[in-house]
Every structure is written in structure tokens, then in C-alpha cells.
Write a structure and sequence with these properties.
- Chain A is mainly alpha-helical and about 250 residues long.
- Chain A has helices at about 5-20, 25-40, 45-70, 105-130, 135-140, 145-175, 185-210, 230-245; strands at about 75, 80-90, 100-105.
- In chain A, helix 1 (about 5-20) packs parallel to helix 8 and helix 6 packs across helix 7.
- Chain A is flat.
- Helix content of chain B is about 35%, strand content about 25%.
- Chain B is built from 21 helices and 19 strands.
- Chain B has helices at about 40-50, 50-55, 100-110, 115-130, 145-155, 175-190, 200-205, 225-230, 240-245, 255-260, 265-270, 325-330, 355-360, 375-390, 395-400, 415-430, 445-460, 480-485, 505-510, 515-520, 530-540, and strands at about 1-10, 15-25, 30-35, 60-65, 70, 85, 160-165, 195-200, 210-215, 220-225, 285-295, 300-310, 315, 335-345, 360-365, 435-440, 470-475, 490-495, 495-505.
- A six-stranded mixed beta sheet of chain B has the order 6-7-8-3-9-10, with helices on both faces.
- The radius of gyration of chain B is 24 Å and the shape is globular.
- Classes of the chains: A mainly alpha (about 250), B alpha/beta (about 550).
- Chains A and B meet through helix 6 and helix 7 of A and strand 6, helix 3, helix 4, helix 13 and helix 14 of B.
Chain lengths: ~250, ~550
């Protein structure tokens, strides 16, 4: 979805503030579901979009951890007892905290409530990341930060490269009949890796220099991002949701 | 457009003069081909034109270089970027962005060109290089030829008057190479672009070049008309050598020209047969039985079955991305196989480790550098002796038997491409493998180094009773000339499937794109190499 990156980020920031303020599990669930559907509908097959799958996995993991911790540890709460866990008695100076024991409906609800808010925040952030490529977000940086954004740009394209070199060199070690996981074999990977990354860095610097990078005072942006009416609609509808349900 | 006046170049800490008193003038709209042995200073010469040498690399330069009336002495490469565009040896290393369009726009952004103008320029360049359909693609998903085109586009976007190309086709298959060179040729003719191109694989470029600049070992250089230069040059493509063997006075630069000039002569050859010594083939040492492999949910090999026997040299050909490297990696258990069975000397290579593996398979990856990680040649050899549990000095002796030794104290990275390949080969051979695998061995090798490689590979396959010999050799290569010289059998791979396999002669003579120059020149007769023709002609004379 070709919206202005700041429109998406603004929208997501508003929703996050709203979720935190309203402190309501229902709103949090509805908002995170809506955003998840939005991301899945946008169907971009780029890697930042794929990062949403990663976000989902993290969210599920967080949910499981938070729920189990909430059930096992905490202060006693009133309500109907659902089931009983074996209880470990703590020393007397840890008054009010218990491990295991009765699990009441109230305790389950409170834990779920906290969980929902935490996870919706994670999902909102993940959705913002998935809807806007980090590169296009960088384009919104002011021109004074052009060099900073170029550096980040180059760094992000170099990292996967580094990972590829690493596995290639590691494979080559196998071809020399080296055994794995010793300190010497680590040295044997790191030296060529270092050499290669240095060489790459030099190659890249050469290429950038040859294309006139860093000589002109004024730089410009290819396809500068325009703030369109749709972006305003997006942002104001998020604002409307917040205001109406505040 | 470009003028060198009495230019000499020496690198610090080096005794060799790279260039010695070079004076040349290159006119507008000219395409000059720079040739010379590996390490003779072709790249240096190219980088001198836009000032990368010495501004970026160091080095002592005397004389005067002018490009479009500007001296490179005081101007940095970036300040010349509007008149000179350069595409380096490995364009993939020079990409800044990850999307094609952004990559092309980078130069314009850096120059602060107004967005509207920028859009127009990018559009023009995309059209010019037929990249319009790839504009939104991520660069890493492109094939080698496409990447090369993106790099050329990125260099052309500032509308330079001069384009410098350093080995633009060395990593490309014949079809992609032709595609790239045809575009360069069109740019020269349509836009009057001045092009300086360095290339090892002369058979691909000579027909496009106006003049040839030969850099000699001692730093002296000669420039002249392509035909005259190649007639006397020690470095010549098969076509030129064929013309010499056929007793042609005039050197032909294209297959068409040679065919026109030799219509009658070719009739003489019809009565002759290429003489081939039959290969002494032993038992199967590497077999694939209905092997399929997938990578990232994409099928890379589909139902591949083949067998390599000891004593034979088999070439694996196919376009970039056809799955050649994946197939080779099966032999060392690095390919994730989903179906089928791979056996090396009766064992599954995935179960083999350490010495068990390397005593069966010797594998030289695309970058032989990967195998080298010690600080000197002597250390490398010593390490290999230890790894393989052989007597000290074995590896060094193998290296000595393969080629003239370089100085043992130098760092492997400072060796020439050919020497590095030789060192990697010696290390691998020290384990006395029964199967030797080479992945694109001729990348960056000049004709001389290639001849050397051919000699070594042939002697390894031959059976003379010694332990080191009678290997089965499996080579993946784009280099049709190498395959024609070296292989007994060719397996042609397309999209992970075996398209055809058979004797080198049958396969190469039946494919127009992958036919060597001699075959093209003498078709429909099934000749493959200049050597064959020469031997047959001499045989007849006797």
C-alpha cells in the first residue's frame, strides 16, 4: 500500500497511545486484529513484510510466557476457583506472593487483560514495520541527515551479505577436512571473513566515489514522498477512532 | 576524448612498473579493448581514466591524463563522475541500494538533480538497457547478466561521455555475455559513447572493438587496429589462431569474416577427421540417482541422474542459475537433497567428514580464496600436510609439479588468479582424492593460465599407474572454449534438469549459443579446437 510512511507510523502511534490509555483488552484485541488483517491484505512479498510473520511468532511466544507466569506467580485474587495448582510455600517475609495454588477466574482475566495490551503494542509496532519499508521511512529524513540515512542504507544491504560470506567460508572449511567448533577453526573463519568484508567495504566506497557520492552540497531524493489526501484520511480516521472511544 | 601523455605508474612496495611511458589518444565514440596477462595492469589503466588510481588506491603517477579536457591530477573520481562512468570487476560488490530503480537513481541523488529531471533520466536509462520490467525487483534476485546491465545503467545515468568496463563478461554465461556486449556496442554506435573495456575472453569482444591496447609484462604498451594487433599479439582468441593455422594472411575478427575468407579452404577439411585419443575410463566414482533438491521452496534440481567415472573429464554447462553449483555441491554433501541418492566412491557424502571426505572428493569452489586462510603460501602447504596426514612437503611438491612456484613467503591473496587456483588445487590434491570438482575455474584466468590448467587437468585424468592420477574430473564452466579443449563428455543443465548429455563434440556442435568459435567457423564440420585442426592438417601433410 503506497501511503506515506509517516502516515502509517502516525496512525500506529495514535493507536498505541489509545490502547495504553483505554486500558481495555477488548479495544486492544480489536485493534491488533484489524491491523493484522490489514497487513495480510496488503500482500507485499518483500522482506520487511515477511518480518510480520516474525512479529506474529514473537507475539504468540510472549502471550504464552506472560500467561503461564501470570497463572503460576502472583498475589492471591478473589473469584471462583477454576482449578488448583500444587503450591510451594514461600518464606514468611514474602508476604502476599504465592507460587502455584488456586487459580481463580479473576486471576485468569487480569492476566489475559495485561497480555492483550502488551501483545497489541507488539503487533502495532510490527504492523508499522511491515507496512512501511525501513528504506522508505529513511527517505522522510530531512536532507541534513542524508549521509546518516545512506550509511544505514548501505549497512542494511551489507549485513545479509556478511551472513552469506560466513556460511560460504564455513562450507569451504569442510572442504579442507577441518573439524568444527574449535577456537582455531573460529579463527580460520574470522580472518577470511574480516578480509572479505574489508575488501567489500573498499569496493563499495570505490563504487560510491566513482558515482559522485559526497561531492555535492545539495542532494535530492528520487521519487520524493508526497503527502496525499489518502494519507490525511488515514491519519484522521485513526484520530477519529481515538477521539470517539477515548 | 581521453589522452594519456607519457604516463607511468608504480605502486608503493612493488618493484614492478605497472605502466611505463604510455601515450595514447582515444577519440570520441571509440571502443578500445585493453588486453594483457593477468596482473599486467589492465584494471589499473582503466581506473587511471577516472582517477580512482592513484586517488583511491595510492601509487606514484607521472605524466598527464586528460578526460574531456579535464586533468585527473587535481580532480577526484567523484568530480569526474559526470564525464566518466565505471563498472568494476564484480558489480555486485558496488551496489548501494537493493531495488533496481533506486540503484540507478543513486548517482543522480548524489548530484542533487531535481526530482522531475531524475525521473526522466532514470526512465531513459531503464529503456536503454531494457530494464523496465525489472525496475521494482530486488537486485539480489537478478541473474548475473541482469546485474551487469543494472551496473551499466547506474554508470550511464549521469550521461557520461566515457564508459569504463573491467571484465564485464567474466562471470556470465555466453548468452548473457552477448546480451551485455550487444548493448554496449549499441551505446557506442547510437550515443557516440567512448568505451574502454578490459577483458580476458577475447573471443567474446574482439568483433566489437575498434582498437586494441596491449599491455606487456614490463609495463610498455602498444595500441593499434584490432586485426594488426591480434596478428602479432601473444594473446589471441581461437578464431585468430585458427586463421593462422589455416594459413590466412588476414586475421578475421568475426566468424562471418572467417567463413567468407575460407570457403574453399574449408573443403579441404571435409576429408579429414578430428583425431581423438579415447579416454581410458574406469569405474563409476560419483553417481546421482534420481536426485531432486529444493532450496527456499524452489526446486533447484529435478530428477537428475548421472555418473562420473574415473579417468574421464566431464563438463557441466548451462546458463547462470541453472543449478550447476548445486549439483556439484551434492558431491560434498552440501546440497539439501529431498529425493534420490548420491554416492561418492560407494558412500553417501553427507555422512562423510574430515579426512574421509577429502580423500574421496577434492572440491575447488568458485572462489578458490575460500580454501585459503593462512598468512603465507608456505603456511598453507604446511597446514594441508597436517590436515591430510601426509609427509611434510607433499603439498609443496605437488604445487611445484603443477606450476613454477611463486615466492613462498607471500600472502595467498597477493598471488595471481592462476597461482591461487594452483595452490588450492595442490592443497586439495594432497589428500589424493579420486574425484576432483572444479566450479568455474577459468574466471579471471588469461589464456596462458588456462592452457596451464588444461594441461594439469588432462594429466590428472590420465592413468599412468601413479596414485595421483586417474581422477574423475567434474567441471562446471561457462567457458565453452575451455570445455571444448578439456572435456570428454558434456552434461547440459537447464532449470535444474539435465537437458542433454553426450560426448563434447555432439553436445557443443549441436548448440548454437554454446558452440566454440572453431565449431562456428567450420560448421557443419564437427571441429572443436584449433589444436585438432592443426593436428589433422599436419597429419595430412606428412
Amino acid at each position: 500500500m503506497k501511503r506515506h510512511p509517516l502516515a502509517w507510523w502516525g496512525c500506529c502511534a495514535l493507536l498505541a497511545i489509545f490502547v495504553l490509555h483505554s486500558d481495555s483488552a477488548i479495544y486492544a484485541t480489536v485493534i491488533s486484529l484489524a491491523l493484522a488483517v490489514l497487513v495480510l491484505l496488503s500482500r507485499e512479498s518483500s522482506y520487511w513484510y515477511r518480518s510480520f510473520a516474525f512479529t506474529l511468532r514473537i507475539a504468540v511466544l510472549l502471550f504464552l510466557i506472560r500467561m503461564s507466569v501470570g497463572i503460576v506467580i502472583g498475589v492471591p485474587m478473589p473469584g471462583r476457583t477454576l482449578f488448583r495448582l500444587p503450591e510451594i510455600h514461600l518464606p514468611s517475609w514474602l508476604v502476599g506472593i504465592r507460587l502455584g495454588g488456586e487459580v481463580t477466574s479473576q486471576r485468569l482475566l487480569t492476566t489475559f487483560h495485561e497480555c492483550a495490551i502488551l501483545i497489541s503494542l507488539v503487533l502495532i509496532f510490527g504492523a508499522a514495520n511491515a507496512l512501511v519499508s525501513p528504506r522508505s521511512l529513511m527517505k522522510t529524513f530531512p536532507r541534513a541527515l542524508y549521509n546518516v540515512s545512506t550509511t544505514i542504507l548501505v549497512a542494511t544491504s551489507t549485513l545479509p551479505q556478511l551472513a552469506r560470506s560466513f556460511s560460504r567460508i564455513k562450507r569451504a572449511q569442510r572442504l579442507r577436512g577441518q573439524s568444527h567448533s574449535t577456537i582455531t577453526s573460529w579463527r580460520k573463519v574470522s580472518v577470511p571473513l574480516l578480509e572479505e568484508s574489508l575488501e567489500r567495504a573498499l569496493d563499495l566506497a570505490t563504487a560510491m566515489e566513482a558515482r559522485g557520492y559526497g561531492y555535492m552540497k545539495n542532494v535530492s531524493h528520487y521519487r520524493p514522498l508526497m503527502w496525499r489526501i489518502h494519507d490525511s484520511i488515514l491519519l484522521s480516521s485513526a484520530l477519529a477512532v481515538v477521539v470517539v472511544f477515548w | 576524448m581521453i589522452s594519456f601523455r607519457n604516463v607511468s605508474l608504480i605502486y608503493p612496495n612493488s618493484l614492478r612498473t605497472v605502466l611505463d611511458g604510455l601515450s595514447i589518444e582515444v577519440n570520441e565514440g571509440e571502443m578500445v579493448l585493453v588486453i594483457g596477462h593477468t596482473g599486467s595492469g589492465k584494471s589499473s589503466l582503466i581506473k587511471l581514466v577516472n582517477g580512482l588510481v592513484p586517488h583511491h588506491t595510492g601509487g606514484i603517477l607521472s605524466g598527464e591524463i586528460e578526460v574531456a579536457g579535464r586533468s585527473t591530477r587535481s580532480l577526484k573520481p567523484g568530480q569526474l563522475s559526470d564525464v566518466v562512468g565505471i563498472v568494476g570487476q564484480s558489480p555486485a560488490h558496488g551496489f548501494v541500494a537493493d531495488i533496481v530503480e533506486d540503484e540507478i537513481a543513486f548517482g543522480l541523488e548524489a548530484h542533487g538533480v531535481a526530482p522531475e529531471v531524475m525521473r526522466k533520466r532514470v526512465e531513459e536509462v531503464l529503456d536503454l538497457l531494457s530494464l523496465t520490467e525489472l525496475r521494482d525487483r530486488s537486485i539480489s534476485s537478478l541473474s548475473g547478466g541482469e546485474q551487469q546491465r543494472v551496473a551499466i545503467g547506474a554508470a550511464l545515468v549521469l550521461n557520461p561521455k566515457v564508459l569504463l568496463l573491467d571484465e564485464p563478461t567474466s562471470a556470465l554465461d555466453p548468452i548473457a555475455a552477448e546480451e551485455v556486449l550487444a548493448i554496449v556496442y549499441r551505446l557506442v554506435h547510437d550515443l557516440g559513447l567512448t568505451v574502454i573495456i578490459a577483458e580476458h575472453r577475447l573471443e567474446r569482444v574482439i568483433q566489437f572493438a575498434d582498437r586494441v591496447l596491449l599491455i606487456n609484462e614490463d609495463g610498455s604498451a602498444e595500441i593499434g587496429d584490432t586485426a594488426t594487433m591480434l596478428a602479432s599479439s601473444p594473446i589471441a582468441p581461437p578464431l585468430v589462431n585458427l586463421a593462422k593455422v589455416l594459413g590466412q594472411e588476414k586475421i578475421s575478427l568475426s566468424v562471418r569474416e572467417l567463413r567468407r575468407n575460407t570457403e574453399e579452404l574449408r573443403n579441404v577439411l571435409t576429408n579429414l577427421q578430428p583425431k581423438i585419443a579415447p579416454a581410458n575410463i574406469g569405474s563409476a566414482i560419483f553417481t546421482l540417482d534420481n536426485v531432486s533438491a529444493t532450496y527456499d521452496e524452489k526446486s533447484v534440481l529435478t530428477n537428475v541422474s548421472l555418473a562420473i567415472h574415473s579417468g574421464e573429464v566431464v563438463a557441466l554447462m548451462g546458463r547462470n542459475g541453472a543449478g550447476k553449483s548445486t549439483l556439484l555441491k551434492c558431491a560434498v554433501g552440501l546440497t539439501p537433497i529431498t529425493r534420490g541418492e548420491v554416492q561418492v566412491c560407494g558412500r553417501d557424502p553427507r555422512e562423510l567428514k574430515g579426512k574421509d571426505l577429502i580423500s574421496r572428493v577434492g572440491y575447488i569452489p568458485q572462489e578458490p580464496d575460500d580454501l585459503l586462510y593462512n598468512q603465507s603460501v608456505a603456511d598453507e602447504c604446511r597446514q594441508a600436510d597436517l590436515d591430510n596426514n601426509v609427509a611434510a612437503g607433499t603439498t609443496l611438491n605437488i604445487f611445484k609439479s603443477l606450476m613454477t612456484l611463486p615466492s613462498l613467503s607471500i600472502h595467498p591473496r597477493d598471488l595471481s588468479e592462476g597461482q591461487r587456483l594452483g595452490l588450492a588445487l595442490s592443497i586439495v590434491l594432497a589428500a589424493q582424492p579420486q574425484l576432483l570438482i572444479l566450479d568455474e575455474p577459468t574466471r579471471g584466468l588469461d589464456y596462458e593460465a588456462k592452457r596451464e590448467l588444461i594441461r594439469i587437468v588432462r594429466s590428472l585424468a590420465r592413468d599412468d599407474g601413479s596414485q595421483q592420477r586417474h581422477c574423475g574430473i567434474f567441471i562446471a564452466s561457462h567457458d565453452v572454449e575451455l570445455v571444448a579443449e578439456i572435456a570428454d563428455r558434456v552434461i547440459f543443465l537447464a532449470d535444474g534438469e539435465i537437458l542433454s548429455q553426450g560426448s563434447t563434440r555432439d553436445v557443443l556442435t549441436s548448440s548454437p549459443a554454446f558452440a566454440p568459435q572453431v565449431t562456428k567457423a567450420l560448421s557443419p564440420q564437427p571441429w572443436l579446437t584449433v589444436g585438432e585442426v592443426e593436428a589433422a592438417l599436419e597429419g595430412r601433410n606428412v
